[in-house]
Specification:
The complex is a heterodimer of chains A (about 575) and B (about 700). Chain A is about 65% helix and about 0% strand. Chain A is mostly helical. Chain A has a domain of about 200 residues. In chain A, the strands form two sheets. Chain A has a two-stranded antiparallel sheet with strand order 1-2. Chain A has a two-stranded antiparallel ribbon with strand order 3-4. The longest helix of chain A has about 30 residues. Chain A starts with a helix and ends in a 5-residue tail after the last helix. In chain A, about 60% of the residues are buried. The longest helix of chain B is centred in the N-terminal third of the chain and has 39 residues. Chain B has 26 helices and 20 strands. In chain B, helix 4 packs antiparallel against helix 10 and helix 24 runs parallel beside helix 26. Chain B is α+β, with helices and mostly antiparallel strands and about 700 residues long. In chain B, the strands form three sheets. In chain B, strands 1, 2, 3, 4, 5, 6 and 7 form a seven-stranded antiparallel β-sheet that branches. In chain B, a hairpin with a 7-residue loop joins strand 1 and strand 2. Classes of the chains: A mainly alpha (about 575), B alpha+beta (about 700). Chains A and B meet through helix 14, helix 15, helix 19 and helix 20 of A and helix 8, helix 9, helix 12, helix 23 and helix 24 of B.
């Protein structure tokens, strides 16, 4: 580990902290329907959209209607995206002449983008037309992110409103997060990326002649626009197969830094939106602090592991950290930082190959995902995910102050506990369940790139990434088989909607409750004590479940390398 | 509450039957009520079947498997034992109550007078029947007195041997079946059918037969069931991970891991905690009609307390003699004492006491003074004495002034000067402002001064209220006094707020206002006019001396009829919730050590590298697994006393309470099993068990 590496990491953290308040303030105004500096331009557009859709910002929805709307919207997106891939051969904007995507892959990819996962069993530049990339994937990048934010806002309203009946209007929240938040920021980011050298064209692939005289086709396309939302919306689906390790998708350290910042920006700011909407910003900072502590711990461990390097390689007389699978323009510190950011948030973009990380370095991204992407997390998903843990933490420890547990004045009772447990339960079900089946399925095991614990890690990582809606791949695993396409898609659907429905049920149950005024007998939820408690619950309830799996994967691999053994 | 009661916690008269109870509770129908322990029982049973099969076919490591299975069953039995001990404490009390419920003959009235009745068994009475109960009779069932007045021995339910008065009309009209009339007679309308009387309900409550899960308990059960499911996933997936690695793991080891990981500690003790919480209330002579009420008591935000009897002693007491100009304190005290000698009211007695203590005026005998007592009447609103042609009166200031004016006209003595009247009134006003009651004293038409009668705030009550404030509970004093007096007493007692000139209506609306703000309200009351407020309050404690209506409206009954208890009831409610939270936290925190004990042992055969995770340095894989399961079972027994006694509640803010409990039960829960498992490992290896 170097001082330079640490300075870069700390500068990154500093910028995120500085962004939380202004962005949080802006987003709060947007979702409260207050005036912002973009209102003169966007209000007419917004009103026009509502008129076309036949809704209005005054039409508030019950939580069941809200949920039904978002499920229908996702289903619609799924069908359109599937159809686009299947018919891309006969649709326009297909200069490279891509043919119809095979059904299993098309289904997997459609689910992947609708669930904000962006797991890619395809190589973008070699299998998808510009139309699919733009009208399919990029659109879903926007609306799946906006859906996540909308759910978080609905849940916040559950806490913030007293004796209410509705949790907001899905269509309004969806429109506002797309129109006022994602689009404007993405337009700016796209221009910056283009300036930094990222291609943005509808033209055909470029043929070049190499120094040796060989002919090489260089893929280009509307990269910058997809890149902007892929990061900001924590989607992670790269235009190119190599994702943000590709020089056209991440040309230099500056673009790398902007990408890392944009992954965390909205997720971090949402904690502040939460604080503002419930009337006490310190509540938001407490959640942010819990996320921050877990994040820094992850970065430290991952950076340490990568910087320490491989003892087996050291034994050959080659010193230094582990550079396998890393881009030299980013180095160890920025690769480790990127890996932790992209898995802490459910982004899944990569600028290095996680498969090539050291055992511990590769385990941290897995742990981040196993915890349910609550360390900043996916846009919206991170906030509602951590609030599930908050419900459990408050219930377990809140009893210890001798009152029915309450959070922000709302009593946490059987219904909330039940829903929070359902939400937390579905992740190990998908992650461990599918891994366990794949482990004993010869064809599934054959798809791994390595044998022994590392091969196990590849399978575990794939299902973990899918269910956590992260989408990053460990690499090594050949995921484009019917088995993986199907089970990973199911994992993604479970990880998305089996969490969303309980979350919405909690929002609906909380919103009708009275807010109990705070008193000296109220469990304080904005201090260091609560932050520590929350971290403990996240690690014990969320993390310990995976201890056996991690033990026979990365942990045993790490211990074996220390003993000079390979598999 | 008292030390003697908690000392009897481990009474052998309870413990020995509880061992039998633990086995009886292996009945699946009773086990299924507790999801966590039911799961443990199921896996124990399945492992036993597998073991028997192995025994027949000759498997390996039979001794080890046998030990694991024994401890699995112990885990279930220990949980049953905890519940049986908790129930056992209530059973003894129920037995003594049953004696009071012995078959009685009731005198069912057939006519309008008291003479015509027929004898019917008490159990045959219907609601609405009218019975006669005479001296020596046992009251056959719960009812309301519609005629008569009698002294009743209620020791069967209250444990208090002093008889109480029951009469028709007022706030003491409720009678309880099983109690005995000592003198006079009562005409009683039966209000409860056989089997649903107060004593029946009490028996069911103390035995825990009627125990229903409380809201928080239900939520906690869901959490525990959810965690159990999570650990099903964590352990059920291990065999296939092992297959991938080219190994296999014995079922008994998987079961051991599973049982140690699921929250058995809290699962085992949960119902014992609930029963013990109810029992603590009963020991305290308070009957909660539902567990929900006990929990609500812990959540209370606002306490409504009656001034009289709770905050102040029931009676006003003389604290000062304030003479008018020209009269000495000694003179006034002397006159006041004479006027009060024969006054048997507590106020009157307090005047005599004050005169003696402060001015050394001895009590005198009315007869030797040839004095005649003039008692208080509603018309005169004064009392006093006539001694040798001299007359002394004391009473309300306006009544005394009116008396002075009328007597001066009649006897022709000097009229009270306007100045004196003004002075007297200004003294009286000051006393009223300070929350006291002024009593004017006059001798032969001459105004002497004013006696200051004061509501005496109970000692230590101020500290209690500041304690409640630290707990985040707001106290509101309810009084019929005028706002001025109320404010003065409220300030002296240190309550947060007061409701002066209280009526049943504004009491009810106060409760509704507080509830609209999301607060939970507790109050106590005894009269029929309290019933609506008792019913509206989240915790309504009815006094046992109160009316049937009040007792029906409240969700708790205080057998001692002591309104101060509301404060303790809140503490008991909080203690119940805290104990559950503390043991849940402890139980979950235990898992870390158990993973570190079992995981390396489990995979050691094919991944020996994982031995590095054996940070406790446990001797062998088998001893590691065995130690974890033994610790898991023994910790249940070790925590039975805590679950019955409850976690100590301290009246400090929630923040301080939380950090303290998190430190003890959270951090302690992480550390204790590391030490415990290591110690057990050392013991069993030295015994050669593994």
């Amino acid at each position: 580990m170097t001082l330079n590496g640490w300075i870069q990491i700390l500068v990154y953290c500093g910028i995120i902290i500085l962004l939380v308040k202004p962005l949080g303030g802006y987003m709060t105004r947007v979702f409260n329907g207050e005036r912002t500096f973009l209102s003169p331009v966007l209000v007419p557009v917004e009103r026009g959209l509502y008129r076309i859709a036949g809704t209005s910002e005054r039409d508030e929805q019950h939580w069941t209607t809200y949920t039904a709307a978002l499920l229908l919207f996702s289903l619609g997106g799924l069908i359109v995206l599937y159809a686009l891939q299947r018919f891309q051969g006969i649709l326009p904007y297909n200069p490279a002449g891509m043919t119809a995507t095979e059904p299993g892959l098309a289904f997997n990819s459609a689910v992947s983008f609708v669930t904000n996962t962006n797991w890619q069993n395809y190589g973008g530049e070699s299998s998808m037309s510009y139309l699919v990339q733009m009208a399919g994937f990029t659109v879903q990048n926007f609306v799946s992110a906006a859906t996540g934010i909308a759910i978080a806002i609905a849940l916040i309203r559950g806490f913030a409103r007293t004796s209410g009946r509705s949790v907001g209007n899905f269509w309004v929240d969806l429109t506002r997060s797309t129109l006022y938040i994602l689009l404007p920021i993405c337009i700016v980011l796209t221009l910056v990326y283009v300036y930094l050298g990222v291609p943005q064209t509808l033209g055909t692939y470029v043929d070049a002649t190499t120094l040796e005289g060989a002919k090489q086709t260089i893929a280009v396309g509307p990269v910058a626009s997809q890149l902007a939302i892929k990061m900001l919306g924590t989607n992670g689906g790269g235009f190119f197969n190599a994702n943000s390790a590709h020089p056209f998708e991440n040309p230099d350290a500056i673009s790398n830094f902007i990408q890392m910042v944009s992954i965390f920006a909205i997720g971090a700011a949402l904690t502040n939106v939460f604080g503002r909407m419930v009337g006490n910003q310190r509540q938001g900072w407490a959640l942010f602090a819990a996320m921050g502590v877990l994040f820094l711990a992850g970065v430290t461990a991952c950076y340490w592991s990568e910087a320490a390097g491989n003892p087996l390689v050291h034994a050959l007389g080659i010193d230094g950290g582990n550079m396998e699978g890393k881009e030299t323009r980013f180095g160890i510190a920025l690769s480790a930082l990127f890996a932790v950011i992209t898995t802490a948030a459910s982004c899944g973009a990569v600028n290095a190959m996680h498969d090539s990380f050291m055992a511990i370095g590769g385990m941290l991204p897995m742990i981040n995902m196993m915890l349910g992407e609550v360390i900043i997390g996916g846009v919206g998903a991170g906030l509602y995910g951590i609030l599930l843990y908050v419900v459990i933490a408050v219930f377990v420890a809140g009893l210890m102050v001798g009152r029915t547990p309450e959070y922000l004045g709302k009593k946490i009772e059987a219904k909330e506990v039940k829903m929070a447990m359902l939400g937390v339960l579905c992740l190990p079900l998908a992650m461990l369940g599918f891994t366990a089946i794949a482990c004993v399925l010869p064809s599934a095991v054959a798809a791994t790139g390595n044998s022994g614990p590392h091969g196990f890690s590849e399978i575990l990582y794939a299902y973990t990434s899918a269910a956590a809606n992260n989408g990053s791949a460990f690499g090594g695993l050949s995921g484009n088989t019917t088995w993986y396409n199907l089970t990973l898609a199911i994992g993604m659907l479970m990880g998305r909607f089996f969490v969303i429905i309980p979350v919405m049920a909690i929002a609906g149950s909380l919103v009708v409750k009275k807010t109990v005024p705070e008193s000296a007998g109220t469990f304080p939820t904005h201090g260091g004590l609560f932050v520590g408690l929350l971290i403990g619950v996240i690690l014990i309830v969320g993390g310990l479940t995976f201890f056996p799996a991690l033990a026979v994967g990365p942990i045993v691999e790490h211990l074996a390398i220390g003993l000079g053994q390979t598999f | 509450m008292s030390q003697s009661k908690s000392a009897s916690l481990m009474d052998s008269r309870i413990l020995i039957p509880a061992i039998g109870g633990a086995f009886k509770k292996l009945d699946p129908r009773s086990l299924i009520k507790n999801p966590v322990m039911f799961v443990v029982a199921v896996v124990s049973f399945l492992t036993t079947v597998l073991f028997l099969k192995d025994l027949a076919t000759g498997g390996r490591d039979l001794g080890f498997s046998f030990q694991i299975i024994v401890w699995l069953w112990f885990t279930v039995l220990f949980a049953n034992f905890a519940e049986a001990v908790a129930e056992g404490r209530g059973k003894a009390q129920a037995d003594s109550l049953r004696k009071a419920r012995t078959e009685t003959q009731a005198k069912l009235l057939t006519g309008d007078d008291r003479t015509s009745f027929k004898l019917v068994p008490g159990t045959k009475l219907k609601v609405g029947d009218i019975v006669l109960v005479e001296a020596g009779d046992i009251i056959p069932s719960d009812g309301e007195v519609i005629e008569g007045i009698a002294s009743v021995n209620e020791s069967a339910i209250t444990g208090e041997s002093a008889p109480v008065i029951r009469e028709s009309g007022g706030d003491r009209s409720a009678v309880t079946g099983g109690t005995q009339v000592l003198s006079d007679w009562l005409r009683v309308r039966i209000t409860a059918a056989a089997g649903s009387t107060f004593i029946d309900r009490m028996i069911a409550l103390v035995e825990g037969a009627e125990r229903q899960k409380t809201p928080n308990e239900i939520a906690l059960n869901i959490l525990l069931a959810g965690m159990t499911l999570i650990f099903v996933l964590a352990t059920a997936t291990i065999p296939s991970f092992a297959t991938y690695a080219g190994g296999a793991i014995p079922v008994v080891v998987l079961v051991a891991l599973f049982v140690t990981l699921i929250p058995t500690t809290i699962g085992a003790l949960l119902s014992a905690i609930g029963i013990a919480g109810m029992d603590r209330l009963i020991q305290f002579n308070v009957l909660a009609m539902s567990g929900r009420a006990v929990e609500a008591a812990g959540d209370v935000d606002t306490l409504l307390l009656d001034k009289t009897g709770t905050i102040t002693f029931g009676n006003r007491q003389a604290t000062e003699f304030s003479p008018v100009t020209g009269v000495t304190e000694q003179e006034l005290a002397d006159a006041a004492q004479l006027a009060s000698l024969a006054d048997e009211t507590p106020e009157g007695r307090s005047i005599v006491v004050l005169a003696k203590e402060k001015y050394g005026i001895r009590a005198r005998d009315m007869a030797t003074l040839h004095a005649t007592f003039v008692p208080f009447t509603a018309q005169s609103r004064m009392s006093g004495v006539d001694i040798d042609g001299s007359s002394i009166r004391k009473g309300a200031v306006d009544a005394v002034l009116a008396y002075v004016n009328s007597t001066t006209v009649a006897t022709g003595t000097v009229r009270a000067s306007a100045e004196l009247v003004r002075e007297l009134q200004s003294i009286a006003d000051q006393i009223a402002k300070a929350g006291g009651t002024p009593l004017a004293v006059v001798r032969d038409g001459k105004l002497l001064g004013v006696i200051h009668l004061k509501d005496i705030v109970k000692g230590g009550i101020r500290e209690r209220f500041s304690e409640l404030r630290r707990m985040g509970i707001k106290t509101v004093m309810i009084t019929g006094d005028n706002p001025l007096t109320a404010a003065a007493i409220a300030a002296e007692a240190g309550v947060d707020d007061f409701l002066a000139q209280a009526t049943p209506e504004n009491k009810l609306s106060l409760i509704r206002d507080e509830q609209a703000k999301g607060k939970l309200v507790a109050m106590c009351g005894d009269g029929t006019n309290d019933a609506p407020a008792l019913a509206q309050a989240d915790v309504g404690v009815a006094m046992n001396t109160g009316t049937v209506a009040a007792r029906e409206a409240g969700n708790m009954v205080d057998l001692d009829s002591d309104p101060t208890k509301l404060i303790e009831i809140v503490g008991i409610g909080k203690q119940l919730l805290m104990t559950r939270g503390a043991l849940t936290t402890f139980s979950i925190a235990n898992d870390i050590a158990k993973y570190f004990a079992i995981i390396p042992a489990m995979f050691l055969a094919f991944y020996p590298q994982l031995g590095a995770l054996n940070i406790m340095g446990l001797q062998t894989p088998q001893s590691a697994i065995l130690s974890a399961i033994i610790f898991n079972a023994l910790i249940i027994v070790a925590l039975i006393p805590l679950s019955l006694k409850g976690v100590k509640y301290r009246a400090v803010g929630a923040g301080a309470l939380l950090s303290r409990n998190l430190l003890i039960y959270g951090l302690g829960g992480v550390i204790v099993p590391f030490i415990g498992i290591k110690a057990i490992d050392m013991v069993i290896t030295s015994l050669g068990l593994a």
